[in-house]
Design goal:
11 helices; 5 strands; mainly alpha; flat
Amino acid sequence: MPRTDDRLFAPFPIEMDEHPKILILSDAAFRAVFEATFYARRMLTDGFLDRRVVLKRWGQAVADELSSNDPDHPTWTPVENGWLIYGFEKYHPLKADIDQAREKKRQAGKQGGIRSGETRSARQVSTTGEPKPKQDASKTNPETETETETETETRDKRAASRGTRVPRDLTLTPEMRTWAAAEAPLVDLDKKLAEFIDYWAAVPGAKGVKLDWIGTWRNGMRKQQEFAERDRPDKGKRNPDDWMNR
């Protein structure tokens, strides 16, 4: 039987190098487009690039270049603690899908083993010609039930600690407004809240799940304050109102 090719692949359209936002890239940024995609595919990050990895492998200048090479859909979008590769989920399987496929394969193998065992048992007969009685799996392994219950409890605890996706009804509390008045006075809170919710609702996979959405909102407003200070008329030309260009 021929060996299955277990290598991972990252598809790219052959006309990609002619796209306007790719044509303008430096050699270093062009190389980073491919290397970062290979990294995210191999590490199953759903297109998320950890800030530490980006700065170590490609540097801040490359990150800034890829975060600003298109006004609407830059190659990398800044998110909390890193960047997200634009459109990654359209062309690559996400971690949840891969895990599900692996589990289905594991379960299929398990069921195949059970059927194989049942077939062997049916063929085994005693010297009197009568089929040998089946053994009760629970009797041969009295710890099975306890172990199963423990595994279920562990999975439940892990699920509870994974956080949630952004609440669609997230609202600004008086405490949040008071905090923003001191920490992010240049930010239009009501406008940015709507953009904040829409943005995080669109982030796929585990990267769109947080334990503390108020803390994530504060980090986002700090970043928007930085953008507003940097992009004032006397400090730059960019429009600080465009959340997705950052």
